[in-house]
Give the backbone structure.
Amino acid sequence: MSHQIPVPADDAPALEATGLGLKYRRGWALRDCDFRLPAGRICGLVGPNGAGKSTLMALAAGLLPPGAGSVRVFGGAPGSPQTRGRVAFLGQDKPLYPRLTVAETLRAGRELNPGWDQEAAERIVRQGDLPMSARVAGLTGGQRTRVALALALGKRPDLLMLDEPLSDVDPVSRQELTGALLGEAVENGTTVLISSHVLAELDGVCDYVLVLGGGRVRLAGDVDELLASHRLVVGAHEGDGPVPALAGHQVVELRRTSRQATALIRPAEGDGIPPGEDGWGIGDGWDVLRPTLEELLLCYLRSPQAPALLTPCARPTPEAALR
Amino acid sequence: MTTMTTSTDPTSADPAATGSGHPPARTRRWLRGAVWLSGRQERTALLVAGGVLSAVCAWMLFLGLQISSFVEAHHLQHCNIVYFPPECNATSVSTVVQRLDQSWQQSVQTTGWILLALPPALGLFLGAPLLARELETGTHRLAWTQSISRRRWLAARLGVPLAVTLAGSTVLAVVSTWWVHVVEGRFAVPGYYHWFTWLTRTTTGPAAVGFCLLGVALGAAVGLLVRRVVASMAVTAALTLVLRLLVDNLRFVLLPAKRAAVGIHVAAAPTDPHVVLFGGQINTGVPLESYNLGNGFLTGSGLRIPLSSDSIDTLRDGTTVCSDNPCLAHHGEIVQAYSDYQPPGAEWPMLWTETGLCLALAAALVAFCFLWIRRVR
Amino acid sequence: MAASVVEYLIDRHSGLSPYLQIVEQTKRALRLGVLRPGDQLPTAREVVEATAINPNTVLKAYRELEREGLVDSRRGVGTFVRRSLAKPGTIADSALHTELAAWVRRARAAGLDREDAAALITTALDSVFSEPATGASGPDVDHDDTTSTTSTTSTTSTAGTADEEPG
């Protein structure tokens, strides 16, 4: 078994959006989205309800035509003959044919996908002690999720998009299914885009994040890079005035009690780490901590006014805009 | 935190244990891909439709054989209850004909209604839910994120039920044609007196096939637009009725009518009304069992003056009396009375015309589905 | 192919990154002699399936171990232990362990609780390891296969489990 993630032959990013937008009757669901998801990454898609997460996935799956800009999947248009077989999408509602049995559902996957991996799909189903002859209509929500996931994984996609996949799965199966999912991913070099409300669930699973808010990209990039370019600082501060110690830094979020201030900061310009390394040149009396992924995401979700940040690998290439 | 436990994974050690040994040879080659899925999805509906169809055909055969053996046993082959030819006028024969009518009239009428209802029922229960259920439950997204294109999926989704409908309705057409031939003109059932009455004409021959296919295609197209099963069924029911009436009336217009004409003398109404014989009829020599499309007068210059009915008033010498203003305005110039009609021989050309209309409409609806599917979200 | 002998347990709330946890746990297994040269580390897939952590994390940890010369990655075959970190005397039943256990008992008898004792040890470790090393060698101890933590899969049959085995 190879330990190098086999990246698809062409080195086109798994997903690349430039100026991507979609307008519904009630307004823009997604607007001016620019980002890039390199192949082979496990990317968490995070944002409040109505941030455009499901819309983004539907666009990338070719279920919706973009209203503005473009989105590319391994360099091709979503839903085109070249990309159809490479992308699997598991929607939030996890649609399955209720009258088919589990075995027939897998057969449907086999009939509709030339690269079908029956063994992988059956493995997922069997781990859940699901009888193959059970009718889908009679399954619980969690069991249905398992079958839907088996269908998505059996396709052997290069890009697997999962919209809130494990929301109705019990904790034991959740861990096991995440493991199975990542196991298939490491075996086939699959890029995974997974949306979730449970931020703790993404910690350790994702090496890449994409945060949406109000239909726009708020934060995108490599998790390690993002964590390295942010600091959580805690110190004594009284009153509502500006905090002098934070001058020269971009403050993402600032929370105060009557005596104390807690802030998530990043360098004022660019994305480089300031020369002070760990202390970041913050004055004495302040604790400077590396945030966890959950803390970082929470701060960004809580402060919609903070300017967006994309690490270099998350910025679309100039050529992408011309396509 | 401990690090060490033994790790022997039985699933990874033994690939044979995962039971992927599906014999591919067992898969019937013609039932593959999206066609298999479509067939599996519609299996219940198609089985029910097939069952109903078989039952109806068996019933028609059963009833038809009983009636035709009765007819043969009593030598009633030529006894049409509308015209009652002279050889059937004997009291004994008349009693037998009445017995025939009394025994089976109700069954024949019910069968007629069932035959009439079959194509719309197919539209309602097979056509309308076909795409509407997918769109309502979101399973179209499941299909569209597999490796096949929307259009190939749609081709299978529509193709399977349409092909099965074609096969089933062909059987129905053969049996019902024979059935209509057995019962036509023998029962006091409105709709079964003549070849051109509505029960006869919409359930005979290729028209049955045409209406069945149109029903399914219409239901599918409506479902694609309406996206809700129950609403699609309602809309399909309403549209089926409209389309049926439309096609039914168009068929008489589309086939050129024949015209019969006789010379005639026309005069203005005399001052003494007692000399007028009321309630005569124009006799232009139209063949028996023809479908009358309209009567009227023709002037020497070719002007057509239509009459609202074929009843006329005459004088004792045979002169026809004008009874309305258009006639009075031209009565001096009228030279002929005419009837436009379709002769009995037009039955099959008409059935084919009607079927053609249905198929053209069905094809247009299917084409619409293929165009519209790209815009569906 | 030899079956893998270790399994990683990842604590997401330990504050230590999963990457470091894998590196540390592997090194500990090497130090304790549970992993020996030639042993195969679990495949990335096995680790990921068991722990549900990011596959790139596992690969990064293995690359780090390879960089340190502890393991060899053979493409398409697996990752194998290259050299052991086991030193005589680091095994749990060693004389050092006995001494330390005796010290802990004394500390407990003196009324110290677990945290107090741990703090004392940490302080001692901090002060001693900040001095320059004196080049002392470990005491001579007998090498025993029986470890208190676990057993290996294949050949080792320990006294504690022998009578539980069927047949």
Q: What stands out?
A: Chain C touches chain A through 26 residues (CB under 8 Å). Residues 136-167 of chain C have pLDDT under 50 and may be disordered.
